[in-house]
What does this fold into?
Amino acid sequence: MPRITVGLGGILILLGIIAYAATSFASVTALIPAFLGLVLLVSGLISFKNAKIGIHIALVVALLGAIGTSMNVMQLGALFAGDAERPAAVIVSTVTFVLLIVYIVVGVRSFIRARRWKNTEA
It folds into this structure.
């Protein structure tokens, strides 16, 4: 999980930078995926020393990020209809949302596997 967390953090940082550049540096909010990615990257680095704390922090940040980006994801219908007010924000938020949801699922499955492994050891 630590490597996955660091990798996801790097992907989100790159996504945020690309989004910021693609929107002609118009709004700092395009960097939100990069800010989430930075926190995930740091959490991933922490998890190399203490996996339990680092991954828990990363999963909470991922959950909050998914909740925050869901507002723009709800505008996918308007994007497909051509009525979206900020199409770039909808696209970037949707990509961020999907990445974070996949990460949360992988993280929870990892915790379940670790718990089962620990129970079979005892």
